[in-house]
Amino acid sequence: MTVTAFHRRPEPDEIASVTSTAAELLEVLWGRASTAPASASQLRLLHILEHHDGINMRTLAESLASTPPATSRLFDRLQAAGFVERENSPEDRREVRLGLSGRGRAFLADLRGRREAELRAVLDLMPATKRNALVEGLEAFCAVAAAQIHDDTDGSGSKSA
Predict the structure, then answer these.
(1) pTM of the entire predicted model
(2) How far apart are CA 3 and CA 17, in angstroms?
(3) Beta bridge partners of 98
(4) CA nearest to 81, candidates 43, 112, 26
(5) Of 116, 66, 54, residue with least CA distance to 90
(6) 40-51 vs 57-64: helix axis angle to the nearest 10?
(7) Following DSSP, what letter does each residue of 58-84 receive, concatenated?
(8) What is the pLDDT of residues 80-139, one digit of tens each?
């Protein structure tokens, strides 16, 4: 994996390439923090529930870009592990709300702590000015990405490039 050094103002496609490499390296670092006992798909489901507590199975399936039966099976495995819960909606007994259990929240908090420890080990080796530039860029990236994801989730965003 080669990380390219840029001089002056890199173009978005060049930044995308470096960001992709950074994401791959993050996966390797996070692998050291082990996500067991949850798979990548199960982690995505947990993250969605963390931010959209009380959603229904259809909305969860759409968020995962999956089918309701596949999502239900994935959810069932996490429920058996004690990470998620189902409850009937007080407004409509036919509606089932999905959410994280206390154990699921604790698992995500522990996972984040282990991942952050792996990242700190790398960040400690970076010069302070580079860390400051990194955090400034990541904050801007996160704001735009979160807004785009929120727009896409609401169905009001466009998926143009």
Answers:
(1) 0.75
(2) 9
(3) 55, 86
(4) 43
(5) 54
(6) 120
(7) HHHHHHHTS-HHHHHHHHHHHHHTTSE
(8) 999 999 998 888 878 889 999 999 999 999 999 999 999 999 999 999 999 999 999 999
